[in-house]
Specification:
By secondary structure, this protein is of the alpha/beta class. It has a single domain (4-226), classed as TIM Barrel, CATH 3.20.20.10. Helices cover 41% and strands 16% of the residues. It contains 9 helices and 8 strands. The chain has helices at residues 4-22, 40-48, 59-66, 89-92, 105-118, 141-151, 170-190, 208-213, 223-226; strands spanning 30-34, 53-56, 77-80, 98-102, 122-127, 157-163, 199-201, 218-221. Strand 4 (98-102), helix 5 (105-118) and strand 5 form a beta-alpha-beta unit. Helix 6 runs parallel beside helix 7. The longest helix has 21 residues, at 170-190. The radius of gyration is 17 Å and the shape is globular. It binds pyridoxal-5'-phosphate. Pyridoxal-5'-phosphate binds at residues 34, 36, 57, 81, 165, 204-206, 220-224. Residues 34, 36, 57, 81, 165, 204-206, 220-224 line the site of pyridoxal-5'-phosphate (PLP).
């Protein structure tokens, strides 16, 4: 059986070869190891193998893992990649490096309020529904371009880029990743501080190679590192 360290090494090599063939610098692609449903002990194995960025999807599970004996005090950059509801913002603000899954102005307002109260700046991405699948979270592209100006007005938060979950079909996925990259370009044109808008969080175990080709700066990989999940995911 392959170990977590083997899997991380293999993905690292893969990132290198995709970057090589597309003329990208591998240091511009950040690997986020997605550990939802997996025990803290396995996350620790990834960290011991040199992994720094860890992604979690559920608030309660994230808090438990962050505070666990195996992981507290470890050099981890935590990413919240699940869909974040407004009433959960207070639980994670100040505890994560980046929030990927926000798709409502109300949630951003709450994030701004909570960050202000703690006197920190919170970084976040807006989730975009690029596939148009009704079961997926995220603003659709037209909503994003219409609503974006309101996102720029709030204090103590920083919009850093966009996130999407693509269709299972690889052809469609490429089109959706390209759409996200184009949307980020458009946002930069209207943003007061476009130099902050640098991140494209896209690509998972099945399609990260395509995502890197289309400009991903963060790929979120679970299964290819930690193995299949038993629990059914929403
Ligand atoms: C679970 C999850 C991933 C990782 O998916 P894999 O297919 O296991 O690599 C990435 N992004 C989000 C938002 C997820 O919920």
């Amino acid at each position: 059986m392959e170990t977590i360290a083997d899997n991380l090494r293999k993905i690292g090599l893969d990132i290198g070869s995709v970057c090589n063939r597309t003329g990208r610098d591998p240091s511009t692609v950040r690997l986020i190891a997605v550990s939802k449903t997996k025990p803290a002990m396995l996350v620790r194995k990834a960290i011991d193998a040199g992994q720094v960025d860890i992604g979690e999807s559920y608030v309660q599970e994230f808090l438990e893992k962050q505070g666990s004996e195996e992981l507290s005090g470890q050099p981890v950059r935590w990413h919240f990649i699940g869909h974040l509801q407004s009433n959960k913002v207070k639980d994670i603000v100040g505890r994560v490096t980046l929030i990927h899954g926000i798709d409502k102005h109300g949630t951003v307002r709450e994030l701004s309020k909570r960050a202000l109260r703690r006197n920190i700046t919170a970084d976040y991405l807006i989730e975009v529904n690029t596939s148009g699948e009704p079961t997926k979270f995220g603003l659709v592209p037209d909503e994003l371009t219409m609503q974006a100006p309101r996102f720029f007005e709030l204090p103590h938060i920083r919009l850093r880029g966009l996130m999407t979950i693509a269709s299972p079909d690889r052809k469609k996925a490429r089109h959706e990743f390209r759409m996200l990259a184009n949307l980020l370009d458009r946002l930069r044109k209207i943003a007061p501080e476009p130099e902050q808008l640098t991140e494209l969080s896209m690509g998972m175990s099945q399609d990260y190679d395509i995502a890197i080709e289309e400009g991903a700066t963060m790929i979120r990989i679970g299964t290819a590192i930690f193995g299949a999940r038993n629990r059914k995911m929403p």
